[in-house]
Amino acid sequence: MIQRHSIILWKKPEEKDKDFDEIAKEAFQVLDILQNYPVNYRPNYLTGSDLRDVKEFPWDLEHFRERLKKGLNQEDDHKFYDLGYSISFFSSMNENDSCAIQMRTGIKNKKFYNTLIINLPVSTNVFGERDAEMIREMFQYLVLKYEPFWGCISNKKISRKYGKLWENDLPVAIHWGNYWSKETVESIGQEKIAGMIHENPQASFENGILFIKDTALDVNNHKDMDYCDKWQTRLLS
Fold it and tell me: Is 219 exposed, middle or buried (0-12, 13-18, 19+ CB in 10 A)?
């Protein structure tokens, strides 16, 4: 059974006075982190390109800036600057090795979030120590640079079990990797989190980043699912 994993980060709306050049530069710097990882995790090709004549995207700030500008949210001739810009990439022509990267940035409307979603390649073995360590590191660097208010490394099969990702200003589920802002940590309670760490030697919590174990939660592993259910109930209810 294939278990698909994604890095999901949500960021609060930008300040009204932040201009496009600053938005584009910050977005580029976040995605530029992926250049430190194997080529099948990088934003190599623009999504939507005709595969018959697809060309590798030239990775530099100027090309990124120009392409992001074309992703302005608009309907006919009306431009919604407060709803920001969208851009998406894929990494490989080989479907199993391809990473899909989607970013919505520059949103200033308080009803919406800026988002970064990285659908990891199917070939990534997050149940093995080497790939799991790499994804853990990637998640931490992205969190530090992107500065979200919430984030996770989602197993899509586990996420479907719990339904929504966020409700009543709290995460709905515990994932393998989690990021919680200071406000979220305060809402959950430091004592509850400390109890989880005490009972599980593999769990770690630092700078708002919680990992349940060294490798990913496995939906086919009853111990993983029992543990996930237990702490989902204790921490988030």
Answer: middle
Going from the first residue of the chain to its last (237 residues), give the mean pLDDT of each consecutive group of 10, the final group possibly shorter.
93 94 98 98 88 87 97 80 94 95 97 97 97 98 97 92 84 93 94 89 93 94 89 81
SS (H, E, C) 51-103: CCCCCCCCCCHHHHHHHHHCCECEECCEECHHHCEEEEEECCCCHHHCCEEEE
pTM: 0.95
Question: Using an 8 Å Cβ cutoff, are 13 and 108 in contact?
Answer: yes
Evaluate whether 140 touches 115 at the Cβ level (below 8 Å).
no
The upper half-sphere exposure of residue 48, i.e. CA atoms within 13 Å in the direction of its Cβ, equals 8
Residues 32 and 111 in one domain: yes
**Structural domain of 35:** 1-148
Quote the number of domains for the chain: 2
Three-state DSSP class for 211? strand
Domain boundary, last residue among 101, 118, 148: 148
